[in-house]
Amino acid sequence: MNKTKHTSSPWSWHGRSEDHNGSVYYLKRPGHAYAVAMQPRYVSAEQWEADARLIAAAPDLLDALQAVVRIADRKTVEFDKARAAIARATGAANDPDGQELRQHAVMGIERAMSTRAMFVVFDLDGTLAINDHRQHFVQRPVGQKDWRSFFAACDKDGLFWQIARIAQVLDATGNRVEIWSGRSGEVIDKTTAWLAVNGLGHIPFRCRDEGDHTPDHELKKSWLEECSQKPDLIFDDRSSVVAMWRENGIACAQVADGNF
Ligand SMILES: [Mg+2]
């Protein structure tokens, strides 16, 4: 879908007009030309020619600058200038409603979707499910933690809806999305029902086997090692697990302070 408003390139220039005003010509194809700029008589031939070359190169310069910003955007003064120049050239700078900018954003998403789908994994407890109400079962000294009661109360969890929305949008836009949870399989029925009620029931879900007490970071590392396709991005909350993902080169967005 080509949203470009200006005449497509290549542009070229050729001599002055007959009245010697120094017109700069756009040539779409031989025999079809019209003036796009006019220079006064007193401009030297050297300057006229330099201006003409610059104008004729404009669509290619714009195209190249947009490509550079698209693949290597940085928060620097130089890239601020580049974005401002693109906005001036495309009219986005005079677009008070931001329609042009939104159009570019949509085009960016379309480009991203046409390249490669991402594999994104979401943790459940503390990431998609808000479980503060049952933390007291495990925030106890070692030996007094009541994991069974902790898991059993999972059907009363709230929804971290902002994170759930990201999962739903990524899934709906063609990405591979899965939920990997250290939650015990002994509450699989409650978990499945909770996921369904919260619009996540269609997303593949994996949890620990009943009776398995492997620490979360070791359990999830073993799942990672089983994968033929490594996740591109993980959403998780527990710091020890987040550290494991990062040590294994997986980008991880930590959604809460999971220092437990
Ligand atoms: Mg968690």
Write the layout of secondary structure elements.
Elements: E1 23-29, E2 32-38, H1 45-72, H2 77-90, H3 99-115, E3 119-122, E4 129-130, H4 147-152, E5 158-159, H5 161-172, E6 176-184, H6 188-197, E7 205-208, H7 216-226, E8 233-238, H8 239-247, E9 251-258
Helix pairs in contact: 1-2, 7-8
The tally of strands reads 9
> What is the percent of helical residues?
40-55%
Could you give the order of the helices and strands? EEHHHEEHEHEHEHEHE
Mean pLDDT: 84
Question: What is the SS-derived class?
Answer: alpha/beta
Rg estimate, integer Å? 29 Å
CATH homologous superfamily of the largest domain, by name? HAD superfamily/HAD-like
Number of helices: 8
Description of the structure:
- The chain has 260 residues and is α/β, with parallel strands linked by helices.
- The protein folds into two domains: 11-114, no CATH class; 119-258, Rossmann fold, CATH 3.40.50.
- The protein has helices at residues 45-72, 77-90, 99-115, 147-152, 161-172, 188-197, 216-226, 239-247, and strands at 23-29, 32-38, 119-122, 129-130, 158-159, 176-184, 205-208, 233-238, 251-258.
- The protein has a five-stranded parallel β-sheet with strand order 7-6-3-8-9, sandwiched between helices. Strands 1-2 form a two-stranded antiparallel ribbon. A two-stranded antiparallel sheet has the order 4-5.
- Helix 1 crosses helix 2 and helix 7 (216-226) packs parallel to helix 8.
- It is elongated.
- 22% of the residues are buried.
- The protein binds magnesium ion.
- Magnesium ion is lined by residues 123, 125-127, 236-238.
- Magnesium ion (MG) binds next to strand 8.
